[in-house]
Amino acid sequence: MSELNWKETFDLLETGEVRSAEKVDGKWVANVAVKKAILSSFKDGNLVDFGNEGFPGFIDKHNLPPQKFTPERGVRMVPGGSSVRRGAYVAKGVIIMPPAYVNVGAYVDEGTMIDSHALVGSCAQIGKNVHLSAGVQIGGVLEPVGLAPVIIEDNAFIGAGAVIVEGIQVLKGAVIAPGVILSKGVPVYDCVNERTLERGEPIPENAIVVPGTRPVNDKLAWAKNMGLSMNCALIVKYRDEKSDASLELEQFLR
Description:
Elements: H1 6-15, E1 21-24, E2 27-30, H2 32-44, E3 47-49, E4 59-61, E5 76-77, E6 83-84, E7 89-90, E8 95-96, E9 100-102, E10 107-108, E11 113-114, E12 118-120, E13 125-126, E14 131-132, E15 137-138, E16 151-152, E17 157-158, E18 163-164, E19 169-170, E20 175-176, E21 181-182, E22 188-190, E23 195-196, E24 207-215, H3 221-225, E25 229-238, H4 241-245
Parallel strand pairs: 5-8, 6-9, 7-10, 8-11, 9-12, 10-13, 11-14, 12-15, 13-16, 14-17, 15-18, 16-19, 17-20, 18-21, 20-24, 22-25
Antiparallel strand pairs: 1-2, 3-4, 22-23, 24-25
Helix pairs in contact: 1-2
């Protein structure tokens, strides 16, 4: 992989033959060679007008055009302003509602729905049958090249307006409630198992995560005296038959 140029890398990314992150011995790691190739494409690209490609008024690097879909790919790209950039993989059965954006190096697996105003950032990895609700922001991670991107594993449900950035991993079946913010600076408290997740620790399988607040610490005495609180996330339960039933409605939309 280290000898491939950006064009070869993009071709392999778009077919899913290579990925910008891989699971090795149960842990997600960045594919450094792929990320370096993507970064090199920005240096090699020249600004062009994409009007002749059907996008009047849009200017970008000539080697990073938006993809064009055909019925044979089996992807529902609903009209209305969405875009999938060169070098991203979108599998059969994916639904993309407008407007949405999938950036270079991203991987979106079968049966996933990307709802309106959702972003799948550069190199983000989205599993099978994931639902990214309206306004979800999945951050991209290109640099540093050794840092794994945001990972959303199979059957996860990400609620409206959730923000997941800085390489956070959400494991299989987890449910992220609307408005939750997950980053390495936001603590996550597992109220079921009565523990605090380590910094950057993945959200566990089947966890149901809701927004929360926590008191400020003693270093911010004035804020503490004012009764102010800071953002956090709370695991309040793990999925069961009742919570699964509440998520079944989306199957009727496919």
